[in-house]
Design brief:
The protein is α/β, with parallel strands linked by helices and 431 residues long. The protein has helices at 15-28, 49-54, 67-72, 129-132, 139-150, 192-207, 232-244, 287-290, 330-347, 353-356, 395-410, 417-429; strands at 7-11, 33-38, 42-44, 64-66, 77-87, 92-97, 106-109, 112-115, 120-121, 159-163, 216-219, 248-250, 256-259, 263-266, 271-273, 276-280, 283-284, 315-317, 364-371, 374-380, 389-394. A seven-stranded mixed sheet has the order 7-6-5-2-1-8-18. A four-stranded parallel sheet has the order 12-11-10-16, with helices on one face. Bound molecules: flavin-adenine dinucleotide (FAD).
C-alpha cells in the first residue's frame, strides 16, 4: 500500500462490493489503494442456487467464486474480517479478523468508504423456521432443500411458497430515477426467486412423479401483484400462466406468524396448509449500520442517485444495504457499482462531470429457471417510472442464465458490456 494515495475501503465482497472495487480500479487505475473486507473469502452466486437445488446438485460445489484470486488480479487488498463498527466522523472502520475466534479488534482508516454489506436475512425472526421451513438463499439451506426434495424427505403434500413482510425505510423518498417516477415502497424485498421456484417446482412435481402443480400455493404480502417491479403486464402474464397450471395465488397476506408442521400461519390466524414451506424472509439492516447518522428509518444507507450519502459524500452505498436499491436484486447493485467507480474517478479528476454524473436509472433484469430447460426473462423499468417491459419464456433464457454464471466466473465477475448486450439481444430479438 502506498501511503500517499487515497484509501478506498469496501465493506462486503459479494455482487455489489466486488463490482464496486473492480469499477473503481477500472476508472481510477493505480491512483488509489483499495481494501475490501468480507467475513467470507468467496462470492456466493445466489441466483443459481435454486437451479442447483431443483436439478439435484449441491450448490456449494458450483456457486462460489474465490475472492482472493479475483481481487489480487486487480491489486485490491483483501481482508477476511467481520465489520463491527463504522465511525463516520473519524473515517474509520473497526473489524475483527475472522479466521479464528478471539482475534483482536483492528481499525482501518478510509478516505472513501463503499458500504456493500447486503442485509440480514431474518429467518431468525420467523418462529418455527428451523424445524419446518426451507429456503434457497445460501448454501446451507439450498443443500438442505435439495436433500429434502431428492432424497426422500418430501412426501407429496401441499407446498406453500412466499415472503415475509419487508419493512422498507424512508431513505429513498423523493428520488425520481425517471421523469415523474420514484423508488416505490414494497412489502416484500425480492420476489423474483418466488416466481422462479413456483414454476420450477411445478415442473419438478410432474417430472418426478410427485404430483401436479395444483399442490402449490404462492403467496405475497403485496396488495395486488407479486414482484410488481417486473412490470405490471409481465406479472399479469405470469399470473395467467400459473393459474392455467392450476397453481393457487394468494395476495395481500398478513405477515407470517409462524411455521408449523401443518403449514404457514399468518398474523390474524389464517393458515395455508403445507407440507413443504419455502420462505424468503424480511431483509433487515445489519445491526452495526442501523444507528449510523447515514442510515434511514430502517437502517438502510441513504444515498442520492449517484450513490453518495448526502451528508457524507465520501461514503457510497451499493446493493441490498442501500436504501435506494428496491427491490433487493443484484442486477441493481451492479448498476450502482458502475456509478460509484465513475464518481471516485470524478473526484480524482480522472473523468469529466458529463461522463461521471449519470444517475441511477434502475432496471429489473431477471432470468428465472422454470424447469425442464426453460426459463423466463424479464427486463422492466416501468415500476420506477420508465417505459420498458419485456418478458420472454423459452429455452434460450435458460441457456443464458447458465452461460451468464459461467461468464461471470470466467471473468472474475467482470462481465463485459458486450456480454450483457448479447444476452439482451439473444433473449429479446432471436425468438
Ligand atoms: C434465492 C435468490 C435468488 C436471487 N436471484 C436473483 C437474480 O436472479 N437476479 C438478481 O439480480 N438478484 C437475485 N437475487 C438477489 C441477490 O442475491 C441480491 O440482491 C444480491 O446478492 C445483493 O448483493 P450485495 O452484494 O448487495 O449483498 P450480498 O450478496 O448480501 O453480500 C453482502 C456481503 O457482505 C458481507 N458481509 C455482511 N456483513 C458483514 C460484516 N459484518 N462483516 C464483513 N462482511 C460482511 C457478506 O459476507 C456478503 O459477502 C436473488 C436472491 C435470492 C435470495
Amino acid at each position: 500500500m502506498t501511503p500517499s494515495k487515497p484509501h478506498v475501503v469496501v465493506l462486503g465482497g459479494n455482487f455489489a462490493g466486488l463490482a464496486s472495487a473492480q469499477k473503481i480500479r477500472e476508472y481510477v487505475g493505480s491512483s488509489v489503494n483499495i481494501t475490501l473486507i468480507d467475513r467470507k473469502d468467496y462470492l456466493l452466486f445466489v441466483p443459481n442456487i435454486p437451479t442447483d437445488v431443483m436439478e439435484n446438485r449441491d450448490p456449494a460445489k458450483h456457486q462460489r467464486l474465490q475472492l482472493r484470486a479475483a481481487l489480487k488480479s486487480d491489486d485490491i487488498e483483501f481482508v477476511q474480517g467481520i465489520v463491527k463498527q463504522v465511525d463516520v466522523a473519524q473515517r474509520t472502520v473497526d473489524f475483527l479478523p475472522f479466521e479464528r475466534p478471539g482475534a483482536e479488534c483492528e481499525v482501518l482508516h478510509y478516505d472513501y468508504l463503499v458500504i456493500a454489506m447486503g442485509a440480514h436475512l431474518a429467518y431468525d425472526k420467523i418462529p418455527g423456521f428451523a424445524e419446518h421451513g426451507h429456503t434457497v438463499s445460501d448454501l446451507f439451506h439450498g443443500e438442505r432443500l435439495r436433500q429434502y426434495l431428492h432424497e426422500g424427505g418430501y412426501h407429496g403434500g401441499p407446498i406453500a411458497i412466499g415472503s415475509a413482510h419487508f419493512h422498507q425505510g424512508d431513505g429513498a423518498e423523493g428520488l425520481a430515477p425517471y421523469p415523474g417516477g420514484s423508488i416505490p415502497y414494497a412489502h416484500a424485498a425480492c420476489e423474483g426467486p418466488i416466481m422462479e421456484l413456483t414454476t420450477a417446482l411445478a415442473s419438478w412435481l410432474v417430472t418426478s412423479g410427485k404430483g401436479t402443480p395444483e399442490k402449490i400455493t404462492v403467496f405475497t404480502p403485496e396488495e395486488e401483484l407479486i414482484a410488481a417491479d417486473a412490470g405490471e403486464n409481465n406479472v399479469r402474464h405470469f399470473l395467467r400462466l400459473i393459474a392455467g397450471m392450476g397453481i393457487h395465488y394468494r395476495k395481500n397476506m398478513p405477515d407470517i406468524a409462524r411455521l408449523t408442521a401443518a403449514g404457514v400461519e399468518f398474523d390474524g390466524g389464517e393458515t395455508i396448509e403445507a407440507e413443504l414451506k419455502i420462505i424468503l424472509p424480511d431483509w433487515v439492516a445489519h445491526e452495526c449500520l442501523r444507528d449510523l447518522p447515514i442510515a434511514d428509518s430502517k437502517g438502510f444507507i441513504k444515498t442520492n442517485l449517484l450513490m453518495r450519502n448526502p451528508d457524507h459524500p465520501e461514503i457510497f452505498a451499493a446493493g441490498d444495504c442501500a436504501a435506494v436499491t428496491m427491490p433487493k436484486i443484484g442486477g441493481i447493485g451492479h448498476q450502482e457499482a458502475e456509478i460509484i467507480g465513475r464518481q471516485v474517478a470524478l473526484d480524482l479528476g480522472l473523468m469529466d462531470p458529463e461522463e461521471a454524473n449519470q444517475p441511477l436509472q434502475p432496471v429489473t433484469f431477471c432470468i428465472g429457471d422454470m424447469g425442464e430447460g426453460k426459463a423466463f426473462y424479464v427486463r422492466a423499468n416501468t415500476w420506477f417510472g420508465g417505459k420498458e417491459e419485456v418478458l420472454k419464456i423459452g429455452r434460450i433464457p435458460y441457456r443464458l442464465k447458465m452461460r451468464y454464471r459461467d461468464l461471470f466466473f470466467l471473468t472474475n465477475g467482470k462481465i463485459p458490456g458486450f456480454g450483457l448486450d448479447i444476452a439482451q439481444f439473444a433473449a429479446e430479438k432471436i425468438f
